[in-house]
Design brief:
Blueprint lengths: L1 H11 L2 H24 L10 E3 L4 H9 L17 H11 L10 E6 L5 E7 L11 E6 L9 H12 L3 E6 L21 H13 L4 E7 L1 H12 L7 E7 L5 H7 L7 H18 L1 H5 L8 H9 L3 H7 L10 H8 L12 E6 L11 H9 L3 E6 L20 H18 L7 H10 L1
Parallel strand pairs: 4-5, 4-6, 6-7, 7-8, 8-9
Antiparallel strand pairs: 1-9, 2-3, 3-5
Helix pairs in contact: 3-15
Enzyme class: hydrolase
Protein name: Monoacylglycerol lipase ABHD2
Keywords: Cell membrane, Glycoprotein, Hydrolase, Lipid degradation, Lipid metabolism, Membrane, Serine esterase, Signal-anchor, Transmembrane, Transmembrane helix
Length: 430
């Protein structure tokens, strides 16, 4: 009996290692396939897709700002994944991000709120010799202390730009709210107050308006709300915004590209910001918020629920639809007449491709607009690098400064023009 068992064991055992080796190979192949798919390694690199009219100014800009027409090459191993690009921006920040030294200013608002912004002086002369100020609006819940803002400010200072960075109302953890209100998706009051201060304090300066993500919506809405807001503005750059919150809300509930997960994570972050100002927003001073709103906040799992139960009430909107309609720049951006650069990425997990018809159509109709769409970059990522480690400066940082430099040089060549809108009109007729 024992001999029979030994004989069977001897006849079976030689096949077992081969079978296990096959399983190992299959497992490795599966993991490699998943990695290749998730990291999008087979995706090619390419120059951005550019949509604009053929005008003298646009030809000059594309020639002077050559980075827009060259191939954007993200880090080889992970840079073709929009998720990795977005996660690295959001969690790891920039590599060795600088700590620019600035001054924080406080601006009292008419409703009792206190807007804050940080002012950074240039570290050298601008290439044109002129006084130019970057007025910058960060992304949702962000401020001047975020890595990507510090990196961009540090780079801009070295290029001779003064920088003014808005701190979204309620975003700074060490600054208390002075009224029962915080920032919203499209409220331009604080940004307007900062721009007005800069114009008063530096009457000789010209402005470069820059907005990131939600900040892009705010700056485009600000410029389009009133033609007077475009005075002294040389150009505007918007990066990775969604243009219409009403059209975006349905896509934000979809699981495609994990947008529903991003929605949950962003909602969780908004909860933390709101709850950190619980006393100001839900205390005795507040007439717009109730205890019931606070209980709904705890159970909210999406930005839309928070917007409906909390955010829209800061400005008295009757419904979520009305809030999204009135706070989205899509209804104002066509009024912007200064040179306007709109940048988005095809693999941005937060901005659905259907929203990109808005900037593309605008660039086709208006001669002052250039729409740039990259194949890779994620949401505010745009890292560059060889294989694994990204460079400190991103493609996005370089594009904004390069475009701003080109605009400043163009304006310098037009001494008869005293306002950016006049220059745009004249060159549009050229």
């Amino acid at each position: 009996m024992s001999g029979h068992v030994e004989k069977n064991a001897q006849t079976v055992s030689p096949d077992m290692p081969a079978m296990f080796d096959g399983m190992k190979l299959a497992a490795v192949a599966t993991v490699l396939y998943i990695i290749v798919r998730c990291l999008n390694l087979k995706s090619p690199t390419a120059a951005p897709e550019i949509t604009c009219q053929d005008t003298a100014l646009n030809r000059y800009l594309l020639k002077s700002c050559s980075i827009l027409t060259k191939e954007y090459i993200p880090p080889l191993l992970w840079g073709k994944s929009g998720h990795f690009q977005t996660a690295l921006y959001g969690k790891m920040g920039r590599v060795s991000s600088p700590h620019p030294c600035g001054m924080r200013l406080y601006l009292p608002m008419q409703d009792g709120a206190t807007a804050t912004f940080d002012l950074f002086e240039p570290l050298g002369d601008h290439l044109t010799g002129d006084d130019i100020t970057m007025v910058i609006c960060p992304g949702i819940g962000n401020h001047s202390e975020k890595h990507y803002i510090r990196t961009f400010v540090g780079y801009s200072q070295k290029q001779g730009y003064r920088c003014a960075v808005l701190n979204h109302l309620g975003a700074l953890p060490n600054i208390e709210l002075t009224s029962p209100r915080m920032f919203t998706y499209g409220c331009t009051w604080e940004f307007s107050a900062m721009v007005s201060y800069i114009k008063r304090a530096f009457p000789q300066t010209r402005l470069i308006v820059v907005g990131f993500s939600l900040g892009g919506n705010i700056v485009c809405k600000f410029l389009g709300e009133n033609q007077a807001n475009q005075e002294k503005v040389l150009c505007c750059v918007s990066v990775c915004q969604g243009y219409s919150a009403l059209r975006a809300q349905e896509t934000f509930l979809q699981w495609d590209r994990c947008r529903r997960l991003y929605n949950f994570l962003m909602a969780d972050n908004m909860k933390k910001i709101i709850l950190s100002h619980r006393g100001s927003l839900f205390g005795t001073r507040s007439r717009k918020m109730e205890i019931m709103d606070l209980s709904r906040l705890y159970t909210a799992t999406s930005l839309m629920q928070i917007d409906d139960n909390i955010m829209r009430k800061f400005h008295g909107h009757d419904s979520l639809k009305e809030y999204y309609e009135k706070e989205s720049c899509v209804h104002y951006i066509h009024n912007v007449n200064v040179p306007l650069l709109l940048v988005n990425s095809s693999d941005d997990p937060l901005v659905h491709e259907s929203l990109l018809t808005i900037p593309r159509t605008l660039a086709e109709k208006k001669e002052n607009v250039i729409f740039v769409l990259t194949l890779h970059g994620g949401h505010l990522g745009f890292f560059e690098g060889a294989v694994l480690f990204p460079q400190p400066l991103t493609w996005m940082d370089k594009v904004i400064v390069s475009y701003a430099n080109a605009i400043c040089q163009w304006q310098k060549q037009q001494p008869q023009c005293h306002q950016a809108t006049d220059c745009t009109e004249l060159k549009g007729k050229a």
